[in-house]
Amino acid sequence: MRQEIIHQNLIKDVLKEKGITQTWLAKQLGLSFCMANAYVCYRKQPNLTNIFKVAEFLMFPQKI
Fold this sequence. Notes:
The chain is an all-alpha fold. The chain has a single domain, classed as lambda repressor-like DNA-binding domains (434 Repressor (Amino-terminal Domain)). Helices cover about 60% and strands about 0% of the residues. It has four helices and no strands. Helix 2 crosses helix 3. The protein is globular and about 40 Å long. The N and C termini lie far apart (about 45 Å).
């Protein structure tokens, strides 16, 4: 039996939940909006450094 894997877009969900824009995220990461959008829409995967940056910015946006 084939098992379906459902991937949730956690970056997109957290951005929406916290009322944070992709433009804000792009500025925090020092990336273009297009690259941040590619991460959010799963067209590209961030490298490990950016994964940790995204996690930090989304967990503690008030510190930035």
